[in-house]
Amino acid sequence: MAAGGGGRNVPVCSAEHGPRAAQHDGMRRDGGGDPYWSRPESRVWTVMLLLGTCLLYCARVTVPICAVALSTHFDWDKKQSGIVLSSFFWGYCLTQIIGGHISDQIGGEKVLLLSASAWGFLTVLTPLLTHVTSAHLVFMTSSRFLMGLLQGVYFPSLASLLSQKVRESERAFTYSTVGTGSQFGTLVIGGAGSLLLDWYGWESVFYFSGLLTLLWVYCTCKYLLSESELIIPVDYLMRGLSISKQTKVPWKQLFKKAPIWAVIIAQLSTASTFFTLLSWLPTFFKETFPESKGWVFNVVPWLVAIPTSLFSGFLSDHLINQGYKTITIRKFMQVIGSGASSIFALCLGQTSSFCKAIVFASASVGLQTFNHSGISVNVQDLAPSCAGLLFGVGNTGGALLGVICVYLAGYLIETTGSWISVFNLVAAVNSIGLCAFLMFGEAQRVDTDSAYMDL
């Protein structure tokens, strides 16, 4: 990738100010101009960000895990459950872009910790507040909407942070490793949450997830950040919230680029189908195989996804280091992540065997993790100077489509009485995104004002 040598390639998306600029100046003084984490720093941050992503999903999946228990407790039908499940994505889509932009300006790590603190408290308080209201559907819908608002900044902030701190040759493996937190979190809440749900009721699942999140925030602040790094002056925050003439993103220039649209369409497709499976798989297994154990179908698919995600990142970086073109590897990973996973999703809707269903669900969820080494890092290939903001744009589309798909899935189940239509929907949406990326995807940097290197 073009690195901006000779003063010719000037990033058009970034004009760093405030603490982010000062932070980079400090690293230039101390680190000889290298803005990236050292190997020891990278390892520690990778582990902590993996845990943070894990806890993000622990909090996010509390309602899907408890969906059947909540429906019984509050007497909801499938359409009402669909409203509660989909309301998360209405909030999730609203903070993606602003979260990515603020992270590009003041640092992704600060935004991550602020949002984690807020969603941790919300998760703990949710079961307590259900006892003080009789409008449970309205309250839980509002709670999920607010959870979406708070968690919407996470992945754009993560993309911004890694694009600034991790070298390109290590980026796919780092992102894939951190991305395994989504499966690890779903695994943890699927296993521990199912047991807590059976033993102590749905409220205990919320307490478990929320308190662990607050503990993670405390440890990260105490051991990885200094006091000065924890302080965000109001003027810097306002500067991050505003888009001045100097920092204004050139939308017309960027969105005339076909690769930008390709990665956005692919990202919104994969995000929405992942959200659909995440929201409805527990209910699918519970209703289709009522005698099955919750800890099996809530654990096994996500357990399989962890090594597949790590393998995809390792394979991607290895092939690129062997001399293969970056875009060739990105597209190869995406064919597996969107294409192969959809085939197994279609198989899932056709089987009546519990064992086969577990195999198909595990394969579909596991292969989806190849997206981490495809489109998820392609945003950082295209525009590292504003990766957080552009990732937010793609995830906003994914969240909006996720709202539609999650609700539509509930509607299809309620009206047709069949789960086949849900998995057909997943495959169709994935196919659209994959075709767009295969046709127009590139790994050339587009946030510079001059010619770039072909990768």
Characteristic key phrases:
455 residues; mainly alpha; 77% helix; disordered C terminus
- Global morphology: globular
Total count of helical runs of at least 4 residues:
22
Topology pattern, helix = H, strand = E: HHHHHHHHHHHHHHHHHHHHHH
Question: How much strand?
Answer: under 5%
Q: Name the quaternary structure.
A: single chain
Roughly how many Å is the radius of gyration? Answer: 21 Å
Mean pLDDT across every amino acid position:
81
Name the helicity range.
over 70%
Number of strands: 0
Low-confidence stretches: 1-32, 243-247, 449-455
End-to-end span in angstroms? 6 Å
Largest sheet: none
Helix/strand structural class: mainly alpha
Q: How are the SSEs placed, and which strands pair?
A:
Blueprint: H1 18-31, H2 39-60, H3 62-65, H4 67-74, H5 78-94, H6 96-106, H7 108-129, H8 136-151, H9 154-165, H10 168-200, H11 202-224, H12 227-230, H13 234-241, H14 251-254, H15 258-288, H16 294-297, H17 300-321, H18 326-348, H19 354-368, H20 375-382, H21 387-416, H22 420-440
Helix pairs in contact: 2-10, 2-11, 5-8, 5-21, 6-7, 6-9, 6-13, 6-21, 7-8, 7-9, 7-11, 9-21, 10-11, 10-17, 15-19, 15-20, 15-21, 15-22, 17-18, 17-19, 18-19, 18-22, 21-22
